[in-house]
Fold Methyltransferase type 11 domain-containing protein.
Amino acid sequence: MVSAYINHLVKSAEGNYVRRLEKFVGNLGLKVHKFLDVGCGGGEKTLLIAKACNAKEVYGMEIDEAGIKDARKRKIKIVKEDVSKEVWRVKDDTFDFVFSNNVIEHLFSVDNFLINIKRVLKKGGTLLLSTENLSAWHNTASLFLGFQPFSTTNICIKKHSIGNPFSSVSGEEKDAFWLHRSVFTSRALKEFLLLYGFKDLKPVVSGYYPFPNVIGNQFAELDPSHSVYIAFLAKNEK
């Protein structure tokens, strides 16, 4: 019964999160020329955030062929690139707005990732970086019980979920691209962005397990350090 409830929360949580990001960006009244989603997948979320910031040109960076195919169907201009590469084949100062959702936690070198984002983003441009929160209550409770945190159960290609009997993630083998390698707490993500010269950080949070989304969002606003998802909107200062 516990696993079924957790599974329901997990399935609804990301949609809730993306809606909050969309609303947050929409309220800023931005008018963006060139927009890039790093790790865009099929592009569904790309278009939601791009529309919220009134982007004229929408680009998506992706390496997965299935994702590229779907994104192109949505008229997204594709930059075919492995986001984990040391240097992206993208010119400096190209984009006004860079968005990346649930990508950074899959990378070995988060430094290269942010260096590349900073390089391709124009001075004064905007970054919206979002990820799972390692210090969310469901993760800290797992550690207290001696289990692997939910956000780091997918660390092995032989079995997608190990170390936590309550994890709702399926147990079959998975491609290495889907493994979690660098999961941040809210505090760590903020410090990381500041170290690379990003300014005017504004947090966006959602979800607060074990509560359902509507109530959870309210608790997340009161206690952002333990929200399920975290994001920061930040300005690029070269």
The chain has one domain: 2-134+181-236. Residues 2-26 form the longest helix (25 residues).
